[in-house]
DNA sequence: TTTTCTATTGTCCCATGGGACAATGCGAAC
DNA sequence: GTTCGCATTGTCCCATGGGACAATAGAAAA
């Protein structure tokens, strides 16, 4: 699987060694002497890739960089490279979403296998994220009012109930509802609910408080 | 948080030592000299608990036991206790769902903190699993025919379309649909779709192939 | 054999959803 | 000042959903 491998390590000779091995395997490589360098020049999320990250580096540490990237919504998989076995750190890194943790020195098989897994994972994640973003983008196009109607409709409210809740005529709700279905490109209520569920809306059921 | 801690370790003196520490902290403790012993006498999933599991034990290893438990659907959190730092094993354990990995000798703070996290996690998981099981149980009560109707309805098919698809009258579908709503205890299509989504049905959209 | 469950279908009727066609009022942008 | 997007509401009409009441038929269970 082709991809860009981002190596973050303060040890220049190590970077070069790893870079050479990866390039030989056909990967595109970018190297960074520190976490900050990577943050300053954020890799595009649009191309397949992963990060090979040293745990202990001057300045921002590996796990710290992991946290920053996570905060800004990055889904670039991270493979940690650590000088010595530290179970505590390993556990935290994996739980924080790291793809793998390898110990130096790392064999080429280990390294390449981990990178392949990371790239495959990134592939998957990107697919999922794209789906989600497409849906979110559609929802973002709703006007505030349409959004309100949307929220109630996907919870099973009838037009009449929505009308009462929002202080408008049933006819008006019908119009909003129509535009919602149009903008979200769905033909049925089922699809609308399904879409809302996938978009992460709809967490609290909020029953069907009959108030005809 | 009260709970039953299941200790699996072949070292009797270690078991006893940990047991004493946990009992002092107010936990109920059960000890097992091997993974097989725990499998033979499976802890009830109904009570809050977690497993303290040695990685290297004669017979079934810790990770192997983890695999077995996972296969049979156990959600008891596992905290591994390992004699020496093994990053490879640690990564696998955590990725396989282990709650934590601690190295021996383990401090009481570390141990108790991990146990508390494990219990809290178990609490959460049990809640989620119960929700899911309630829904699944409801769905399981559907007759085969009702199930077919259900599957199509939650994908946005109209009664007419379902009738054509299943070779029955629209009226018949209406009857089935009614019983589905009744059995699944929902009042609206939106709730039905929502429920299906939560139950894990509904993965492939399968559009709204208009075939009136 | 009788009961029970499941699947099937009917009719009558009303509430709800949704398309077509049309229009008004109000801010904000140009 | 005019245009544009948004919210609002109307009427007419039809398709669909869904409740009420009722009934038939086959298969499985008691």
UniProtKB/TrEMBL annotation, chains A, B:
- Give the matching SUPFAM superfamilies: C-terminal effector domain of the bipartite response regulators (SSF46894), CheY-like (SSF52172)
- InterPro entries found in the cross-reference section: CheY-like_superfamily, Sig_transdc_resp-reg_C-effctor, Sig_transdc_resp-reg_receiver, Tscrpt_reg_LuxR_C, WH-like_DNA-bd_sf
The 4-aspartylphosphate modification is found at 54
Q: Which PROSITE patterns match?
A: HTH_LUXR_2 (PS50043), RESPONSE_REGULATORY (PS50110)
HTH luxR-type domain residues are: 135-200
Q: Name one GO biological process term.
A: regulation of DNA-templated transcription
In its UniProt entry, what is this protein called?
Answer: LuxR family transcriptional regulator
Which GO-annotated molecular functions does the record name?
A: DNA binding
Q: Native species of this protein? A: Bradyrhizobium valentinum
What is any Pfam family matched here? GerE
Keywords of this entry = DNA-binding, Phosphoprotein, Transcription, Transcription regulation
Q: Residue ranges of the Response regulatory domain?
A: 4-119
């Amino acid at each position: 699987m082709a991809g860009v491998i981002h190596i973050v390590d303060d040890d220049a000779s190590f970077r070069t060694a790893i870079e050479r091995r990866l390039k030989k395997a056909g990967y595109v490589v970018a190297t960074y002497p520190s976490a900050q360098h990577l943050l300053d020049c954020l890799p595009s999320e649009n191309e397949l890739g992963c990060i090979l990250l040293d745990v202990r580096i001057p300045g921002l540490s590996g796990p710290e960089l992991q946290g920053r990237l996570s905060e800004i919504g990055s889904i670039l998989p991270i493979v940690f490279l650590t000088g010595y076995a530290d179970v505590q750190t390993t556990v935290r890194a994996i739980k924080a979403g790291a793809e793998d943790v390898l110990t130096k020195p790392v064999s080429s098989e280990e390294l390449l296998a981990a990178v392949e897994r990371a790239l495959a994972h990134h592939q998957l994640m990107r697919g999922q994220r794209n789906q989600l973003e497409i849906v979110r983008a559609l929802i973002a196009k709703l006007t505030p009012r349409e959004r309100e109607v949307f929220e109630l409709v996907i919870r099973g409210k009838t037009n009449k109930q929505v009308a009462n809740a929002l202080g408008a005529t049933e006819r008006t709700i019908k119009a909003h509802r129509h535009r919602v279905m149009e903008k979200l490109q769905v033909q049925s209520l089922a699809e609308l609910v399904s879409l809302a569920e996938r978009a992460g809306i709809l967490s609290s059921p909020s029953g069907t408080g009959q108030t005809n």
